[in-house]
Amino acid sequence: MSTLGLKAVDDLTIKVTTLASFPKPYLPSVTSLWYLAPRHVVDKLGDD
Fold it and tell me: How many domains are contained in the chain?
């Protein structure tokens, strides 16, 4: 997706950027629905 950028700032932080010409005011609420799974769970169950 050319209008969205993701960058790993450090081991615990990601930075999400969008183009100024394509603002995404809903992005904070959408990303609050994400949750991370521990690596051992992903290894066992997969990432689907």
Answer: 1
User: Over the stretch 3-48, which tens digit does the pLDDT of each residue have?
Assistant: 778 889 998 888 888 877 777 788 778 777 777 788 898 899 987 7
Cβ neighbours of residue 47 closer than 8 Å, sequence gap 6 or more: none
Distance, in Å, from the CA atom of 9 to the CA atom of 6, rounded to the nearest integer, reads 9
Please give the helix or strand (H or E) that residue 16 lies within, else none.
strand 13-18
pLDDT value at position 2? 63
Q: Domain residues for 37?
A: 4-45
